[in-house]
Amino acid sequence: MLVIKDLHAKIDDKEILRGINLEIKPGEVHAIMGPNGSGKSTLSSVLAGNEKFEVNEGSVSFNGKDLLDLAPEDRAREGLFLSFQYPVEIPGVSMVNFMRTAVNEHRKYREEEPYSASEFLKLMREKKKLVEIDSNLTNRSVNEGFSGGEKKKNEIFQMAMLEPKLAILDETDSGLDIDALRVVANGVNKLKSPERSTIVITHYQRLLDHIVPDYVHVLYKGRIVKSAGKELALELEEKGYDWIKKEFED
Amino acid sequence: MNKTCRIVNLQEEYSQLYQEHRSMIEDGAPEKMNALRAKAFETFIEKGIPSNKVEAYKYTNLQPYFKGTLDIAFSKEAALNGSSDKFHCSVPELDTHNVFLINGWFAHLEDAHQLPEGVVVGSIREKALEHPEVFEKYYGQNLGDDNDAMAAMNTAFAQDGAFVYVPKGVVVNKPIQLVNIMTGENDRLVFQRNLIVVEDNAQLKVMLCDHTISPQKFVINNLTEVFANENSVFDVYNIQNQHNLTTQVSGMYVHQKKYSNILTNNLTLHSGVTRNNIRVTMDDENCESHVYGLYLSDKNQHVDNYSFIDHAKPHCQSFELFKGVMDDSASAAFTGRVLVRPDAQQTNAYQSNNNLLLTQNAKINSKPQLEIYADDVKCSHGATVGQLDDDAMFYLKARGINENEGRILLMFAFAYEVIEKIRVEPLKENIRSLVEKRFRGEFDKCDSCVVCGHQGASVSCL
Ligand SMILES: Nc1ncnc2c1ncn2[C@@H]1O[C@H](COP(=O)(O)OP(=O)(O)O)[C@@H](O)[C@H]1O
Ligand SMILES: [Mg+2]
């Protein structure tokens, strides 16, 4: 599904990703962990197509297509979804209008008829139930005045609406209370299928109790320095990153 | 008759035009209208069409636009010039009382019998004769002491326009829509003068809708005087939708009495050169005014909103919000003059002007001008200029929305705040979709009236 080879990316001549290699197969869940500033969000942004970052080396193929060659909106339409670490507030753009535009752009891309207003609202109702999002939130402007937890739930709601093939959850669990965490995890698990894959970026084991990873990777200074099974997450929770840093420096 | 006039040197020809046609200008017009002409003419000739050397017109030099070979109608027959005076409103959800004017002259009122008892709507020159006590009490009384040259020009030359009178305690539920249609085979100079009186405890909503249905150059000087008396509620929505060869100087002079609540909203959706002079005089205690504007411009369009809120008495509140989106090489200006006179304690005056520039070449000059002579007041003002938010744009793209759709969503989001201030629900809906169409580039100002859907002559879009 996703094959990243020797990916380098920089901003303002500062190299942040320094040769990432990663392969994700359909149905797999990969966790990416690592200390702050190691480049996890940069990797997500680069995959989603944020032009702030310049890719200066490497390749990414997504379901056989050259991902780096696609415009950000086409990556989304091809089935890549990023749950933002910091979702953006857009006053004046209603959630309904935003989601209707997004869903219909996806449909157009697949050469399907756009949803009528009533079909769309029905879909919205279903998905709202699925992720247990408050109706009030979808009547407001995109993320405007949402609490941290509400913003994260809203990301999961959007994911449910767009049904991506690959979802990247960038610290979707940070700052969530137990309840919200359960909602987020349920949202992800309900969408799980043999074709869909997930990258979970997190600092904590607790989300991984709900979304069980097949692989855990540690990203440090722009490189994946360690990969193992789900037991690695437990070990990191216990021992922190120092031993990995040490191993890496040596 | 239509007089064709070649204007090269401005004052010289305008002076001659006035003097040579004085008897025609005065013919059949109400006495009071004629009585004010001489002095207004003097002021106009002395000051002339403002260039950008005049401080208040610093960002809009009107002189070139008032030159050229222009037709001027000195009678109703000439103004209507064979145009049918029957127009039709085809947007059912916008239930309004419709008044049609052609080239500034009253042409037709639809369904006059549906107006509430006592409400008078019609031609200013005709209704003034039927209601001399109202006309003489109010006409020309609210132009302030600033002696604006364009207001003076209007007073000197205008012969017709609309008259609306709402008696005490009467609530007019349906908005009154004054549709002014600009048409003709030659370039044209149009004057229009409206007088609106809303008596104590009365309520009125008015829509002004000016549009061009032939491709000629139009130069418009219109002026509306409004008197919102005690405890009245008055709204005016000025929907400006003309082709690029139009120059419009539009005056809105509102006078308020105790506990009145007024709203003006200048929605400049499409136009060549627009100058709006908005003056609100809060001449009594406990008045509230809402002064709004939205300007969307592209190509070489230019919009200049000059607002002047005169807090003359204590305990009044004013809320001003102007927002603009400028594309291509469009330019805009905003002046927000707020005068708090020594008497006007406990004034609240809020003003903001926000602008979105879509290109490097688009320009805005924004100037707050606060003159505060009382000490117990709350005044605030703020002006912003920005571009589309990159982070918001990326967020939209990351959900599969392309650049163009994203731009439309974000531009609309920016404009939305002003649209939300519209207090006529169906109009709000209508403006929402027009603004969206405008941003989509699907807005065809040549084919139909934005509000009533009236089909214009098939002309090429300019
Ligand atoms: N917009 C930016 N401009 C400059 N430096 C940035 C920018 N975004 C991230 N960085 C830098 O890139 C590095 C990695 O950041 P990030 O990807 O956010 O890390 P993580 O998500 O792993 O905490 C950090 O050193 C950070 O300061
Ligand atoms: Mg991060």
TrEMBL record, chain A:
Database matches in Gene3D superfamilies: P-loop containing nucleotide triphosphate hydrolases
CDD domains with a match to the protein in the record: ABC_FeS_Assembly
A molecular function (GO) term: ATP hydrolysis activity
Transmembrane intervals: none
Domain ABC transporter: start-end pairs: 2-246
Keywords, ordered alphabetically: ATP-binding, Nucleotide-binding
Family: Belongs to the ABC transporter superfamily. Ycf16 family.
NCBIfam families found in the cross-reference section: sufC
Protein name: Fe-S cluster assembly ATPase SufC
Natural source organism: Carboxylicivirga sediminis
UniProtKB/TrEMBL annotation, chain B:
Alphabetical list of SUPFAM superfamilies matching this protein: Stabilizer of iron transporter SufD
Coiled-coil regions, chain positions: none
Domain SUF system FeS cluster assembly SufBD N-terminal: 10-178
One Pfam family from the record: SufBD_N
Cross-referenced InterPro entries: Fe-S_cluster_assembly_SufBD, SUF_FeS_clus_asmbl_SufBD_core, SUF_FeS_clus_asmbl_SufBD_sf, SUF_FeS_clus_asmbl_SufD, SufBD_N
Location of the SUF system FeS cluster assembly SufBD core domain: 183-414
NCBIfam families according to UniProt: sufD
Family indicated by similarity: Belongs to the iron-sulfur cluster assembly SufBD family.
UniProt protein name: Fe-S cluster assembly protein SufD
Lineage, highest ranks first: Bacteria, Pseudomonadati, Bacteroidota, Bacteroidia, Marinilabiliales
